[in-house]
Description:
Residues 1-22, 57-88 are annotated as: Disordered. The protein is built from four helices and nine strands; from the N terminus they run H-E-E-E-E-E-H-E-H-E-E-E-H. It has 227 residues and is of the alpha/beta class. It has two domains: 1-69, no CATH class; 71-209, Glutaredoxin (3-Layer(aba) Sandwich). The strands form two sheets. It has a seven-stranded mixed beta sheet. A two-stranded parallel ribbon has the order 1-4. Strand 2 (78-79) and strand 3 (87-91) form a beta hairpin.
Amino acid sequence: MASGNKPSNAARKARIEEMRRAEQARERRNRILVIAASTVVVAALVVGGVFVVKSQGDDKKSDTASDSKGGTSGDSGHFTTADKNGVRTWTGKLSRNHVQGTVSYPMHPPVGGNHNQVWLNCNGNVYTKAVHDENAVHALEHGAVWVTYTDKAKKSDVDTLAAKVKQTPYSLMSPYANQTSPIELSAWGHQLSVTSADDPKVAKFFETYVQGDQTPEPGASCTGGTM
């Protein structure tokens, strides 16, 4: 069984590495485009400043009206019982709308739903402070695995997982107080609870869900978002 997976694993690693190189090239192009676009925008503001301000004021009224209520995830369903690998799968709808403000998710950490239009950088990023769910969910949409932990997790486990994440494109890690297990691994629509970084299910989760079949937007960027 293991020998049959080797070609698949090698192909996935090669594909992820190719995506990383493509991202780096895209970032270089984007920097040039941003400089050029900034010049155009400044010129446009000088010429049509009054009209821009008025338009922004109208848009702001509209945005405030919708954002002031907060937001729901738009999700429906529930987690299934864990499979043989310990993974729970969300059954039902996971919405994918871009929203502003705080979103109320039915699961913690969230594994999908409405989210902020800016993704959380997930190119092996390890965050030492809690991050916004709304940005992290966008990273999951791009095919990232999100590792979270509570203060009940052993420091040795946190260090081991941090080292794993730093070596893995399309992954990120952060502390998360509101979860039932000391360690959770989340992907779009899937979640695994463990108590130890040495649990073999951890490696299996990374292997399966980093840019896995569940990814709504495979190959989308994991850099250039928010930190």
